[in-house]
């Protein structure tokens, strides 16, 4: 009996698979490799190349591997680009989730951990986001994640589905040199690529109402995130109570300026980032509380900012 990890060949998904393996829990990966990488899946982990939009692929995997629960990470994750590709985003994230839930119901699989996003909050008007903070997603991506949460809640009311959703902001670092963040849109890869190309990294705005003038955000280490997914799965399987949603937040956040200083120190490459104009819609500060997740999911920030930067840099250089 195994847990199915959709999107398990991705940057986050492959770390989740490794976290399950560290606990001695078998997993099976389903991934269409649209953004994931086959090489991110460890040897010996069963791999099914296919889309969550194909119910036959999912049902076949459930039958073949005796799936007892699902960690659902597959989806289209680029919030900014989703504005230009709304239909594609809804198809991948909403239709895909509905197809997965239908396959689970058909095969009697009743446990699911859903990888949601703090994008469901949009631009909150509070200093510290909690699970009760109003949801105002500002992109098709954020909207699709909120709809995914609704789908789980509705299916749970209609069937015996047990579920929880994990919301988080910026995931960085690496738990193993074999896996790095290849996203063309995330801050760390953009900064590292610039340095490796001999260019000066660029940040957007340094005149915000924050201590150093740059935006403050939640940055969490991918290995800490992966561990929370495993604990959530274990609680579901044990029938222990869980909240419908958890924020995996730092409670404090770090600024983009602090990240730039840490990058310079870790890489040994001295630079002063180029300051570009603010991006429209970027709030000065978005930081979430992780209190509920700390209570139930053993959630905590096990890695410092230096740890995050160093592990990410080492993994990125190993991939060069």
Automatic annotation (TrEMBL):
Annotated InterPro entries: Epimerase_deHydtase, NAD(P)-bd_dom_sf, UDP_G4E
Pathway of action: Carbohydrate metabolism; galactose metabolism
Upper classification of the organism: Bacteria, Bacillati, Actinomycetota, Actinomycetes, Micrococcales
EC class of the enzyme, as a word: isomerase
GO molecular function terms listed in the Swiss-Prot or TrEMBL record: UDP-glucose 4-epimerase activity
Keywords: Carbohydrate metabolism, Isomerase, NAD
The name this protein goes by in its record: UDP-glucose 4-epimerase
Ranges for domain NAD-dependent epimerase/dehydratase: 3-249
Cofactor(s) for this UniProt protein: NAD(+)
Catalyzed reaction equations: UDP-alpha-D-glucose = UDP-alpha-D-galactose
EC number(s) reported in the record: 5.1.3.2
């Amino acid at each position: 009996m195994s847990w199915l990890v959709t999107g398990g060949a991705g940057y986050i998904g492959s770390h989740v698979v490794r976290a399950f393996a560290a606990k001695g829990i078998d997993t099976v990966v389903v991934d269409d490799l649209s953004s994931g990488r086959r090489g991110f899946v460890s040897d010996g982990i069963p791999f099914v190349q296919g889309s969550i939009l194909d119910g036959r692929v999912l049902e076949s995997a459930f039958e073949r591997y005796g799936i007892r629960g699902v960690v659902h990470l597959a989806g289209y994750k680029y919030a900014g680009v989703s504005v230009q590709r709304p239909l594609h985003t809804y198809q991948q994230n909403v239709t895909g989730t509905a197809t997965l839930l239908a396959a689970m119901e058909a095969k009697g699989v009743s446990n699911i951990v859903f990888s949601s996003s703090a994008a469901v909050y949009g631009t909150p008007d509070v200093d510290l986001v909690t699970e009760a903070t109003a949801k105002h997603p500002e992109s098709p991506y954020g909207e699709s994640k909120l709809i995914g949460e609704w789908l789980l809640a509705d299916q749970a009311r209609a069937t015996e589905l047990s579920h929880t959703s994990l919301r988080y902001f910026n995931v960085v670092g690496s738990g193993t040199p074999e896996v790095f963040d290849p996203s063309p849109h995330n801050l760390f890869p953009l900064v590292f690529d610039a340095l490796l190309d001999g260019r000066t990294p660029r940040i957007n705005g340094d005149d915000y109402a924050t201590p150093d003038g740059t935006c403050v955000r939640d940055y969490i280490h991918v290995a800490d995130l992966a561990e929370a997914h495993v604990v959530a799965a274990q609680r579901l399987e044990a029938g222990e109570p869980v909240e419908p949603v958890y924020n995996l937040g730092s409670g404090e956040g770090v600024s983009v300026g602090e990240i730039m200083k840490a990058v310079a120190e870790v890489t040994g490459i001295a630079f002063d980032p180029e300051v570009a104009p603010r991006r429209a819609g970027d709030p000065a500060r978005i930081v979430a509380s992780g209190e509920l997740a700390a209570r139930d999911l053993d959630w905590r920030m096990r890695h410092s900012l230096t740890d995050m930067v160093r592990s990410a840099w080492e993994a990125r250089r190993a991939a060069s």
